[in-house]
Amino acid sequence: MGNELLHPDNWVDRYSDYLYNYTIVRVNDHEIAQDLISETFLAGLKSKDNFKGDASERTWLISILKRKIIDHYRKINSNKGKAEIRVNYTDEESEGDWLEERVKDPFDRTAEDTLENEELGLAILRCMDGLDERQAKIFKMKTIENFDTEAICNEFNITPSNLWVIIHRARRSMAMCLEKNWF
Amino acid sequence: MNLGIIFKCKEASHICDKSQYKESSFIERLLMRMHQWMCKVCREHSAENTKLTEIIQKADLKTMPAERKDELRQVIQQEISK
């Protein structure tokens, strides 16, 4: 038995955005991503007695989510009848142009960049765990969701100078965490 | 406008934070630069702060819509209290 415990009442605040970013790059659809995450949380609740506490809560939820994503693609494929890989040969001359030759395109860095950006995004979200809950919420609203200073101040009932102090501390600790874990 | 800002690290770093969200004025940035010209610590802090802004932009993070989060919270609460 490990020492980790589950706290389902905090799942949405702590992990929903992390799981969301993880899912979006894999299914490429916001609605589907949201559905898969709610399925993941429900499956997690149902099987919470199986949680041994060896892995972190996040790792455990990700492992459930991975299965949900695979199931999602299985469903799509069985709807189609079968999975297909298509290579379009438009004319006879390109007949020797096999799939393998087409896979590697040294000038196409898009896939690698996407992967790197995803890793980076998840690292940023993990670093937000180091912030306390209110600080993390305010930092996220200001920095990622681009809310106005005024809107955030109203929601949290704080003055702009309170807000800037919170943002300043959050940015310092984010920079230190990313310095350690990313750069 | 208090020109004393030029000599205060705290003020300079506040302007630096505001600049990350494009909320500083031209004059403020000018005063901040003058401060940083003299102050190595603030110069380094500013570089670090700007780098943080850049990588967050690069990561292009998404957040789940607030309504969906509320729905999810309710669903989880219901399941827990069953």
Unreliable residue runs of chain B: none
Q: Report how far apart the termini of chain B are.
A: 61 Å
CATH superfamily of the largest domain in chain A: RNA polymerase sigma factor, region 2, helix turn helix motif
What kind of sheet is the major sheet of chain A?
A: none
The largest contact between protein chains, plus residue counts on each side, is: A-B, 37 and 31 residues
Number of strands of chain B: 0
Mean pLDDT of chain B equals: 90
Give the structural class of chain A.
mainly alpha
Please write the string of helix (H) and strand (E) elements of chain B.
Answer: HHHH
What's the story with the biggest beta sheet of chain B?
A: none
Tell me the count of domains of chain B: 1
CATH topology of the largest domain in chain A: Rna Polymerase Sigma Factor, Chain: A
**Helix segment count of chain B?**
4
Question: In percent, how much strand structure appears in the residues of chain B?
Answer: under 5%
Query: How large a portion of the residues of chain A is in β-strands, by DSSP E?
Result: under 5%
User: How much helix is in the residues of chain A?
Assistant: 55-70%
As a whole number of angstroms, the C-alpha radius of gyration of chain B is: 20 Å
Radius of gyration of chain A: 21 Å
Q: Count the helices of chain A. How many?
A: 8
Query: On the 0-100 scale, what is the average pLDDT of chain A?
Result: 84
Structure description:
- The complex is a heterodimer of chains A (183) and B (82).
- Chain A is built from eight helices and no strands.
- In chain A, helix 1 crosses helix 2 (30-46).
- Chain A has helices at 11-27, 30-46, 57-80, 99-103, 110-127, 133-143, 149-156, 160-181.
- Chain A is 67% helix and 0% strand.
- Chain A has two domains: 1-84, RNA polymerase sigma factor, region 2, helix turn helix motif (Rna Polymerase Sigma Factor, Chain: A, Orthogonal Bundle), CATH 1.10.1740.10; 125-183, Orthogonal Bundle (Arc Repressor Mutant, subunit A), CATH 1.10.10.10.
- By secondary structure, chain A is mainly α.
- With 82 residues, chain B is mainly α.
- Chain B is built from four helices and no strands.
- Chain B has helices spanning 9-20, 26-38, 40-59, 66-81.
- Chain B starts with 8 loop residues before the first helix and ends with a helix.
- The A-B interface holds A 8-9, 11-13, 16-17, 20-21, 24, 30, 34, 37-38, 41-42, 45, 117, 120-121, 124-125, 140, 142-145, 149, 164, 167-168, 171, 174-175, 178-179, 182 and B 13-14, 17-18, 20-21, 23, 48-49, 51-52, 55-56, 58-65, 68-69, 71-73, 75-77, 79-80.
